[in-house]
Design the sequence.
């Protein structure tokens, strides 16, 4: 085969081997079970670094208690019970996460709100601490810096408490958040929602007297300017009069000036419900926009959901109230897109969930059943930069585990890269399993640091690939052949390849076998030193110039050797060396050692010496 054809073949082989595997959904890691004692999942949260936890309710000794499975390196850890010492049933667990494994969980037991804290890097959870009583339906969130807020329903009021980033327990605010003290706030479908931006403030939303209100919290102080987010009876939306509003959900980016609220509102005396979204800017709301399908016809929209990245990319979703068709909407690059259909309608409420990473990678997941009484599955789609990555939904639950328990909780959360955990419970008779489907981004940002210049030491280096869910291994391919799999970001193929020009690819492989490949790059190797000779001509008398002449070359052709770079001559009498192949130099009386050094472009060096005595 001609050399040019062989070189082309090697390039094609390298390019083929380096093709990156696409990110994808992975069904059902079993967190706990099978067991009839697994009752419900309460929530999931992930920090930007990929750490987090799933919290759930499970009978222990016949009594319902709170358990957590931490997320570490992309794997769900052995579940841990969080309420030891509490003998009565616990329930309603929620969780918030910050970088380094910092976690806080809230739950209720006998009408009392408890929190459990785990410090970043700690080996165990702290003991539960009672916060307030009575309490129900808690919600919790934590800033990227570790400050957390919890809010809850308490006998017609919405209360809140704060944990500073340096604390481990919560301090309740002095008074409820309600607008009118005598109104029933935060009950039922008006249950509170909360978001904690990067600055450690909080934004709480809740339903009260048919309205959805929002109030900012700064430290332990409430804003004096709560806002009514709902379309009030004296207002119109798309030509329709607003009625009862409920089901608030809220999230915020890093900038606390902005937050995104979704809620359900009845219109035209309750005949049609719409899922609406509004941006909370400063202390006022921008105009509402629709986040649901169905229009103002016979079918309304329901169960709105929202999630925001720190960079203020936002995902919305909702369900239609009778055909149970999931819809989505995306806000990307400061532009709100149009509402679009995620999948087909089904026989059960789709309860859509959204999770978005800092890279704008977005997962939307929902429940689906083809027929009433049939098995319920979890379907999902992925989006990037505001557009779909996949055109059709993926079924991410496992039929062999039975169907999804639609009443036992269904959630989603993502890390900075968009890696997403979707926990739920699958049941087949008495066999109940807490599982989590995942969307796992492959390793990314693999950058080779080895230059394309000639080398005399065959060391291939690269920057570690970005991967939040587990360790990465690296496969090194040279000329289309795998020569090594290593854990460190460098490898020396010394003794494995001959001098010459080679093509190599580095492939990062994650714990699921997904890959990210570097572009093919040339590796030029020359380990043979130059050949040099030295001659001295002329009369060896003081003050009489001598001619110092060298002959040097690099062995091998241009295809296999780097070629000569330069020659230096050191006269040996303290005068500066010169970079030349031939030189004339005069000496005083004495004996001198002349050195001639040849260096090639790969850094190989050969030195020869001659002694001369000047009379």
Sequence:
């Amino acid at each position: 085969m001609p050399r040019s054809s062989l070189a082309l073949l090697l390039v094609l082989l390298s390019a083929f081997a380096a093709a990156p595997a696409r990110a994808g959904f992975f069904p059902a890691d079993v967190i706990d079970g099978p067991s009839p004692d697994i009752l419900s999942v309460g929530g999931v949260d992930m920090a930007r670094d990929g750490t987090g936890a799933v919290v759930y309710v499970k009978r222990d000794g016949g009594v319902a208690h709170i358990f957590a499975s931490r997320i570490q390196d992309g794997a769900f850890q052995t579940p841990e019970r969080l309420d030891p010492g509490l003998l009565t049933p616990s329930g309603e667990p929620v969780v918030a996460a910050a970088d380094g494994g910092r976690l806080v969980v809230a739950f209720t037991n006998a009408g009392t709100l408890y929190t459990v804290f785990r410090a970043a890097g700690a080996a165990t959870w702290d003991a539960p601490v009672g916060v307030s009583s009575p309490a129900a339906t808690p919600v919790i969130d934590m800033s990227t810096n570790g400050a957390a807020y919890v809010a809850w329903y308490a006998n017609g009021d919405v209360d809140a408490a704060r944990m500073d980033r340096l604390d481990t327990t919560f301090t309740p605010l002095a008074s409820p958040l309600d607008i009118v003290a005598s109104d029933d706030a935060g009950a039922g479908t008006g249950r509170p929602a909360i978001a904690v931006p990067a600055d450690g403030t909080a934004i709480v939303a809740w339903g009260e007297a048919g309205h959805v209100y929002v109030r900012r919290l700064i430290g332990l102080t409430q804003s004096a300017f709560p806002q009514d987010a709902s379309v009030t009876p004296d207002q119109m939306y798309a030509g329709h009069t607003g009625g009862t509003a409920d089901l608030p959900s809220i999230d915020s980016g890093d900038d606390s000036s902005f937050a995104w609220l979704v809620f359900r509102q009845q219109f035209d005396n309750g005949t049609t419900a719409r899922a609406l979204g509004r941006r909370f800017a400063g202390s006022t709301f921008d105009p509402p926009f629709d986040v649901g399908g169905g229009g103002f016809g016979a079918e309304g929209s329901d169960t709105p959901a929202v999630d925001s990245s720190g960079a203020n990319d936002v995902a919305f979703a909702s369900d239609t109230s009778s055909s149970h068709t999931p819809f989505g909407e995306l806000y990307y690059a400061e532009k709100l897109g149009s509402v679009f259909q995620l999948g087909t309608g089904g026989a059960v409420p789709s309860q859509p969930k959204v999770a978005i990473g800092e890279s704008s990678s977005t997962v939307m997941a929902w429940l689906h059943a083809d027929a009433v009484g049939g098995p319920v599955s979890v379907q999902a789609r992925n989006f990037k930069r505001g557009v779909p990555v996949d055109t059709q939904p993926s079924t991410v639950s496992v039929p062999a585990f039975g169907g999804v328990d639609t009443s036992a909780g269904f959630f989603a959360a993502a890390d900075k890269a968009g890696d997403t955990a979707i926990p739920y419970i699958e049941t087949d008779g008495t066999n109940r399993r807490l599982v989590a489907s995942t969307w796992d981004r492959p390793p990314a940002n693999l950058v080779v640091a080895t230059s394309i210049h000639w080398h005399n030491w065959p060391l291939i280096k690269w920057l570690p690939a970005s991967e939040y869910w587990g360790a990465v291994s690296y496969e090194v391919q040279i000329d289309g052949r795998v020569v090594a799999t290593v854990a460190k970001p460098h490898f020396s193929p010394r003794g494995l390849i001959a001098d010459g020009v080679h093509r190599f690819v580095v492939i990062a492989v994650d714990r699921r076998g997904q890959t990210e490949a570097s572009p093919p790059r040339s590796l030029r190797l020359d380990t043979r030193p130059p050949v040099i000779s030295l001659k001295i001509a002329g009369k060896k008398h003081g003050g009489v110039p001598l001619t110092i002449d060298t002959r040097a070359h690099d062995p091998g052709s241009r295809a296999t050797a780097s070629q000569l770079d330069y020659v230096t001559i050191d006269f040996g009498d303290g005068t500066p060396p010169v970079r030349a192949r031939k030189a004339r130099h005069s000496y005083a009386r004495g004996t001198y050692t002349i050195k001639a050094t040849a260096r090639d472009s790969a850094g190989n060096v050969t030195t020869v010496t001659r002694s001369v005595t000047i009379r």
Summary: The first strand starts at residue 24 and ends at 32. The two ends are 63 Å apart (CA to CA). The CA atoms of residues 18 and 517 lie 5 Å apart. Residues 3-17+444-524 form a domain with the Immunoglobulin-like fold (CATH 2.60.40.10).
